[in-house]
Amino acid sequence: MNRLQTTTAALLVFAIAGSGCARNRNLPTQLAPSRVTTLAVNSYLWRAAVDTVSFAPLLQANPNSGVIITDWYTNPKAPGERVKLTVAVLDPDLRADALRRLGRSTRTAPGSMPPCRLRRCRSSKTSS
Fold first, then answer.
1. Each residue of 64-94: pLDDT tens digit?
2. How would you label 47-66 residue by residue, b for 16+ Cβ within 10 Å and e otherwise?
3. What CA–CA distance (Å, rounded) separates 35 from 32?
4. In the chain, N or C: fewer CB atoms in 10 Å?
C-alpha cells in the first residue's frame, strides 16, 4: 500500500509540474471558429450564402473577397420573370450586418425575348 501511495504522489507531482512548464502560455487555447479557416470572410456566412443561392447557376464565387454572383435564373413556374443575385460577405466576424445582397430582376411577357442590353444587337434572320 505504501508503494501505491508513493507512485500516485509522484505522478501527481509530475502532472502538476509538467502543466506549469508549457511553452506558449500567452497564446489562446481556443480560436474563434471564424479565425480557424483561411478565408478572409466568415466561413459560416460564406457557406450559408453559397448554399442559399445554389438554386441559381453560379457565375462567380470568390471566398477571398467574399463575393458571390449568380447568372440569370428563370423559375419554371414563372417563365416571364428572371432574377440575378449578388451577395457579398463583408466581415470575418459572425454578425448580421456582415452580409449584403443585391438582386436584379426583369419581367417580360411569356414567350418573348428579354430586352437586349448590348450596344448592338444583330438579328439571326437573313433578308432574302
1. 889 999 999 998 898 888 999 999 998 888 8
2. eebeeebeebeeeebebeeb
3. 5
4. C
C-alpha cell at 115: 430586352
- Give the three-class secondary structure for 47: helix
- The Cα 49–Cα 8 span in angstroms is 54
| Alpha helices, H only, the chain | 2-20, 33-36, 43-52
d(CA 63, CA 90): 11
Sign of CA dihedral 62, 35, 53, 51: positive
Note the pTM of the prediction, 2 decimals: 0.56
Region of 47 (left: φ > 0; alpha: ψ -120 to 50; beta: rest) is alpha
